[in-house]
Design brief:
With 397 residues, the protein is an alpha/beta fold. Helix content is 45%, strand content 13%. It has a 6-stranded parallel β-sheet, with helices on both faces. A 6-stranded parallel β-sheet has the order 9-8-7-10-11-12, with helices on both faces. The protein is globular.
Length: 397
């Protein structure tokens, strides 16, 4: 009799063929990244199912299923195991791709210890940072990574971390940037930014510095505002734009975000007319329009991977002010023009802002062309598709 937890492999998919794949993404349905990957794969004809701890609305061409809610945590975990194995049996995937090593990494451990289909894991930098401080998270990361047929980080530094700290063979690691969606790269750059500025209350002639990451402690938004406060008096043309980002699903995380935003709003009151906080959720196109209406983009976390937000800001023509960390040094080594800011951040960012302005035309064009040539989203999803086919073929040999 067949094991009820056995995950049947759909035979007959040749890595060299154009036959559509069945892909299960074990990933947060509310993430803009998840929805973009699902959209891109579905657009190429693949059948996509997103299995998520929390649900969310799905479009017509791919499916979302969420873990059953209710009951205490042990009961919910037990029910989640039954749910996940049932969903995977029904989807009959060729490949399962786990995104993040937090709750979805833990969910992947509810699958059979030796799944019948290849398992890929994309570790998110934030989850591995959390694992540094939490033994339980580190254990989940270690177990999930060791089950993976292939680990797919977005930066060379993260690949080295996975190999050295978690003892993953380098032959099982493939670095793959998420890139920038074609629809953003192919828009024109001659639109009047004053329309976007007027929409968000930004003076038409200001020099605009945009924090391109979500407002949070991870992205050091308080330090960005502190640096801006230091130079605001001597740079009356300078304007700071902050974006709240997505609202967390967990109630405790939402409360923490609101408290953080409250502190920012209180501090920004002393800079009335010089700082704007965009607290509504923005779609990708709206965020890119803000980048195109800005002169300077700031991303200064203490650690990161190859950030799509940074790549998008470069494609929008912004001057880049980035923390001096390994993944950003990789970007410069690959030809991107940016300024790196070592700690102490408030001082170095204030110094940079005191003399900052738009990129000159040649540097702006160089960054736009580099992103268009090396980070085009359609090329990245094609690489991912080839990777899927290769691991499927290896698993059937």
């Amino acid at each position: 009799m067949q094991d009820r937890d056995h995950v049947p492999l759909r035979r007959g998919v040749d890595a060299a063929s154009d036959a559509p794949l069945r892909v299960v993404l074990l990933a947060p349905a509310t993430s803009a990244h998840t929805r973009r990957w699902a959209d891109d794969l579905a657009l190429r004809g693949h059948q996509v199912t997103v299995c998520s701890w929390h649900g969310g609305p799905g479009p017509d061409d791919w499916r979302i299923t969420s873990a059953p809610a209710g009951g205490g945590r042990p009961l919910r975990v037990l029910r989640a195991g039954h749910w996940l194995r049932r969903e995977v049996r029904g989807a009959r995937p060729d490949v399962i791709h786990v995104h993040s090593l937090g709750v979805h990494g833990a969910l992947s451990l509810l699958l059979p210890a030796r799944p019948a289909v290849p398992l890929l894991v994309t570790p998110w930098g934030s989850e591995l940072r959390a694992a540094d401080r939490h033994p339980g998270r580190a254990l989940v990361a270690r177990l999930a990574l060791r089950r993976a047929a292939r680990v797919v980080p977005t930066s060379r530094e993260m690949a080295e971390l996975v190999a050295s700290r978690y003892r993953i063979l380098r032959s099982r690691i493939t670095v793959l940037s998420w890139g920038v969606p074609d629809v953003l790269l192919d828009v024109g750059h001659d639109a009047d930014p004053r329309v976007t500025r007027a929409k968000y209350g930004i003076p038409a002639e200001a020099t605009v510095a945009l924090s391109v990451r979500s407002t949070s402690e991870v992205y050091r938004t308080h330090e960005i505002l502190a640096a801006f406060s230091r130079v605001a008096r001597v740079r009356p043309d300078l304007f700071l734009l902050l974006v709240a980002g997505h609202q967390p699903v967990h109630a405790a995380a939402r409360q923490a975000q609101e408290e953080y935003l409250g502190l920012l709003r209180a501090r920004a009151q002393d800079l009335a007319g010089r700082v704007a906080l965009v607290d509504q959720r923005l779609c990708q196109a709206e965020m890119f329009s803000l980048m195109r209406a800005s002169d300077v983009a700031i991303s200064v976390p203490r650690s990161d991977q190859r950030s799509s937000s940074v790549l998008e800001a470069a494609a929008a023509g912004c001057r880049l002010l980035l923390s001096d960390i390994a993944p950003y040094r990789e970007l410069l080594a690959d030809g991107l023009l940016a300024d790196l800011l070592p700690d102490p951040l408030v001082s170095t960012l204030a110094d940079a802002l005191s003399g900052t302005g738009p990129l000159d035309a040649a540097d702006r064009l160089a960054n736009i062309q580099l992103i268009g040539q090396t980070e085009r989203g359609s090329l990245k999803v094609a690489e991912l598709e080839r990777l899927y086919r290769n691991v499927v073929r290896a698993g059937t040999m």
